[in-house]
């Protein structure tokens, strides 16, 4: 009798759009000499084109979810890092995520008579984690320094602010696909 082949579970992705009313925030900025200068032996992802001076902005944004209904009332704490080092993902280009063949050449496929690139997209910009047993979530993500500067300008205007987060869940990991800080409630859009 032939053996039965086990079916592999197909990975299902869930997309959730979150609306979070900002209750408070903390901000810090830092300027320092790039630490790779002092200990190059431990600089695993060092790049000769990295800046000598490092400028970092960190925002911690806390609030309560207003949308979707099943997560309304949950508390969120989102940590946003903006720095100019960005070896890799923050400064990545489409060319960096294009699939390559065994010789290192970019891969393409035909679509309606044209050759279009095949991309290997990143999982996301950061991760979202649930605090076990509590209606609380934490998230972190890396962004460009420009984003953190613009966010700080919005915090200074005195209006109510909301975070809109596009969350993508794959397997057990929840990834931040996009984030925006805005003056309108994303649940009303």
Question: Which key terms come to mind for this protein?
Answer:
46% strand; 7-stranded mixed beta barrel; mainly beta; two-stranded antiparallel sheet; 189 residues
Classification by helices and strands: mainly beta
Number of domains: 1
Main pleated sheet: 7 strands, mixed, barrel
Oligomer classification: single chain
Average pLDDT rating: 88
Write down how many β-strands occur, each being a DSSP E stretch of 2 or more residues: 9
Quote the distance from N terminus to C terminus.
59 Å
CA radius of gyration is 21 Å
Put simply, the count of helices is: 1
Element pattern in H and E: EEEEEEEHEE
Unreliable residue stretches? none
Q: What portion of the residues fall into strands of 2 or more residues?
A: over 45%
Helix content: under 10%
Taken from the alpha-carbon principal axes, the silhouette is globular
Major sheet: order of its strands? 1-2-3-7-6-9-8
Tell me about this structure.
The structure is a single chain. With 189 residues, the chain is mainly beta. The chain has one domain. It contains 1 helix and 9 strands, in the order βββββββαββ. It has one helix spanning 145-155, and strands at 13-33, 53-67, 75-83, 108-111, 114-117, 126-131, 136-143, 162-170, 173-182. The strands form 2 sheets. The protein has a 7-stranded mixed beta barrel with strand order 1-2-3-7-6-9-8.
């Amino acid at each position: 009798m032939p053996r039965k082949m086990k079916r592999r579970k197909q990975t299902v992705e869930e997309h959730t759009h979150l609306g979070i009313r900002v209750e408070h925030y903390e901000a810090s900025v830092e300027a320092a000499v790039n630490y790779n200068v002092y200990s190059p032996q431990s600089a695993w992802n060092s790049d000769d084109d990295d800046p000598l001076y490092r400028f970092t902005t960190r925002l911690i944004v806390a609030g309560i979810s207003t949308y979707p209904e099943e997560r309304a009332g949950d508390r969120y704490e989102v940590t946003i890092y903006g720095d100019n080092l960005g070896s890799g993902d923050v400064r990545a280009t489409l060319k960096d995520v294009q699939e390559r063949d065994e010789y290192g050449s970019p891969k393409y496929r035909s679509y309606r008579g044209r050759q279009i690139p095949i991309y290997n997209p990143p999982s996301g910009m950061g991760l979202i984690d649930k605090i076990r047993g509590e209606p609380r979530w934490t998230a972190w993500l890396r962004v460009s320094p420009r984003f953190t500067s613009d966010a700080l300008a919005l915090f200074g205007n005195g209006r109510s602010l909301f975070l809109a987060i596009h969350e993508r869940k794959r397997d057990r990991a929840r990834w931040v696909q996009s984030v925006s800080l805005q003056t309108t409630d994303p649940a009303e859009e």
